[in-house]
């Protein structure tokens, strides 16, 4: 394949932004299209970034900004519903000893940092645009866009998330499936004493937890059995979350006092999906949530997506030929790491749904996180 190579990235979330920056650094021409006009710059409440995510963000050159914008910590607490601390465990440093175990931050802030990195990379970015059709042959992919333009690329990367249209367009029939749980989330003020994630199991919800996201903010969440979203009016979201949260002690009364604006509360079902066999068809390849998703019980969703971007970019920039063998090697390298995380994340939730009281949750978490210390 003669240089300059050209790549289309469909989707401007964490994985799409990351792979764009890495490919541009290698001199590859990249077009990024994002369906939303605002580039998802304001969506979401908070995000928990564990060390293996931080390792990729450092490779992207944005670690200093992430460190300044977030809240780093190294342990997790388990509490009773009344707030009594039952156990505090050190988090596994999955990114190595030179990075924090965990950084919590506001999701819009992380997105803006990645947006700035994409802009600085020199990639071509079009917002409010989707890929309307993909037609490929042995040498490339012809793409028609919803703004009426057309272009040809050596490779297309589908980073368009859990509902990926790219995945469907290339004939991969996997779809996300609900696990039976749902989560209420809000970004709000941080009580002064909150310096780590604490998780309460039991009470009216399966889990009630929070994560500091800056010196002044946190995001809080409660997990329950999923309900028909159409049956929950949007203007009742604050009341619904408060109804669950008010039964928890410790810092929860202070947090719950701020759950007043339904527009600031997010309600989402937990989904699971893992595409098996390969993540590509011809010259179109999937990364991130387009290829796999799991409940946030291990807080690894963003980390796995960022790792996908790092590994794919490493393989593409180090190869003279972009072919089936290369893209299958990407899948084989990733599936060995992603599969156990997806399975463990789903299993932890299923144990709660089934009411298994003697489940080895700490053991499963520990084994999985230790595995993630290895380089992706």
Q: How are the secondary structure elements laid out?
A:
Elements: E1 6-10, H1 14-25, E2 29-34, E3 46-50, H2 51-59, H3 63-69, E4 71-73, E5 75-79, E6 85-90, E7 102-106, H4 107-121, E8 124-127, E9 131-136, E10 141-145, E11 150-153, E12 155-158, H5 165-169, E13 177-189, E14 197-201, E15 207-212, E16 217-225, H6 237-245, H7 252-256, E17 265-274, E18 280-281, E19 284-286, E20 292-293, H8 301-317, H9 324-354, H10 361-371
Parallel strand pairs: 1-2, 1-12, 2-8, 5-14, 12-19
Antiparallel strand pairs: 3-7, 4-7, 5-6, 9-10, 10-11, 13-16, 13-17, 14-15, 15-16, 17-20, 18-19
Fold and architecture overview:
The protein is an alpha+beta fold. The chain is 32% helix and 29% strand. It has helices at residues 14-25, 51-59, 63-69, 107-121, 165-169, 237-245, 252-256, 301-317, 324-354, 361-371, and strands spanning 6-10, 29-34, 46-50, 71-73, 75-79, 85-90, 102-106, 124-127, 131-136, 141-145, 150-153, 155-158, 177-189, 197-201, 207-212, 217-225, 265-274, 280-281, 284-286, 292-293. Strand 10 and strand 11 form a beta hairpin. The protein is globular and about 60 Å long.
């Amino acid at each position: 394949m003669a240089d300059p190579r050209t790549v289309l990235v469909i989707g401007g979330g964490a994985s799409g932004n990351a792979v764009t920056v890495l490919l541009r650094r290698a001199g590859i021409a990249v077009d990024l299209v994002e369906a939303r006009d605002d580039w998802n710059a304001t969506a979401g409440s908070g995000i928990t970034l564990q060390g293996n995510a931080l390792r990729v963000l450092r490779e992207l050159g944005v670690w200093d900004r992430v460190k300044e914008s977030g809240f780093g910590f190294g342990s997790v607490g388990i509490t009773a519903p009344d707030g009594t601390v039952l156990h505090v465990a050190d988090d596994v440093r999955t990114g190595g000893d030179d990075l924090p175990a965990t950084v919590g931050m506001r999701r819009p802030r992380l997105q803006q940092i990645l947006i700035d990195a994409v802009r600085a990379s020199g990639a071509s970015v079009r917002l409010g645009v989707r890929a309307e059709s993909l037609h490929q042959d042995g040498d490339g992919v012809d793409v028609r866009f919803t703004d009426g333009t057309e272009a040809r690329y050596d490779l297309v990367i589908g980073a368009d998330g859990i509902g990926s249209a790219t995945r469907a367009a290339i004939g991969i029939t996997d779809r996300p499936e609900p696990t039976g749980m749902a989560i209420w989330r809000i970004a709000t003020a941080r009580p002064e004493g909150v310096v780590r994630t604490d998780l309460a199991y039991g009470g009216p919800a399966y889990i009630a937890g929070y994560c500091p996201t800056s010196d002044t903010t946190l995001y809080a969440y409660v997990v329950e059995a999923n309900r028909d979203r159409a049956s929950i009016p949007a203007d009742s979201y604050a009341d619904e979350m408060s109804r669950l949260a008010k039964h928890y002690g410790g810092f929860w009364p202070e947090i719950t006092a701020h759950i007043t604006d339904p527009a600031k509360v997010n309600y989402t079902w937990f989904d699971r999906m893992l595409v098996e066999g390969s993540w590509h068809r011809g010259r179109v390849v999937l990364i991130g949530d387009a290829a796999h998703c799991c409940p946030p019980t291990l807080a690894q969703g963003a980390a796995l997506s960022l790792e996908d971007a790092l590994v794919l970019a490493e393989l593409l920039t180090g190869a003279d030929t972009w072919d089936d063998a290369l893209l299958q090697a990407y899948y084989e390298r990733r599936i060995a790491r992603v599969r156990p995380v997806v399975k463990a994340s789903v299993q932890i939730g299923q144990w709660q749904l089934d009411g298994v009281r003697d489940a080895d949750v700490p053991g499963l978490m520990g084994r999985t996180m230790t595995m993630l210390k290895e380089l992706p």
